[in-house]
Design a protein that fits this description.
By secondary structure, this protein is mainly α. It is built from 7 helices and no strands.
Length: about 180
């Protein structure tokens, strides 16, 4: 017997707080991978190809798999899209900022995936290369992307938990903290 499907409206009403929590855990786990990789490079002095984060050490193919990176970018994009209707007012504005930035990040990963599948690389490079990667190295670029998506996402979640009265009045979920 399969579990009942959750509609998008139910996800953004009765299950919004839980869905946001699960989404945040996924995002933080991904962040941990990037932070560990940065520590491996900048604090421990590992060469970039050997700095694979936590999961990349036992599973090195994960770091070189454009499918895995694209898959995460897509999961992140879908989470931001699916959970957006639950936000109101200021929190919705910040969530939309995170969504717009993640949409571009997703496009960059799609470009990387297409190059990996076709064997034809941007600007004659030796490996798949994103547009902004022509200027900023990949490790630093993805730390930046994750930061600029994560920051407005966190602002949105904080504002969503602490809405103004007019925002609380139109919320359909129980994410808001109770007023003191």
């Amino acid at each position: 017997m399969s579990a009942p499907a959750i509609s998008r409206s139910t996800l953004n009403e009765r299950h919004h707080k839980t869905a946001l929590g699960v989404f945040l855990v996924i995002v933080l786990a991904h962040w941990a991978e990037h932070v560990v990789q940065a520590i491996q490079i900048y604090a421990l002095g590992w060469p970039v190809p050997e700095a694979r984060g936590l999961l990349g050490l036992p599973f090195p193919w994960l770091v070189t798999s454009e499918w895995m990176h694209y898959g995460y970018a897509l999961v992140m994009l879908m989470g931001l899209i699916l959970l957006r209707p639950g936000f109101t007012g200021r929190s919705r504005t910040w969530w939309t900022v995170a969504l717009a930035i993640q949409f571009w990040h997703h496009i960059e990963h799609l470009l990387l995936l297409i190059q990996a599948l076709s064997g034809t690389y941007l600007a004659g490079r030796a490996a798949p290369t994103s547009v902004i990667q022509l200027v900023i190295p990949r490790v630093e670029l993805h730390l930046f992307y994750n930061a600029v998506v994560f920051a407005p996402m966190v602002v949105a979640m904080v504002l969503h938990r602490r809405p103004r009265l007019e925002e609380r009045a139109v919320m359909r979920c129980d994410c808001a903290l109770q007023p003191a």
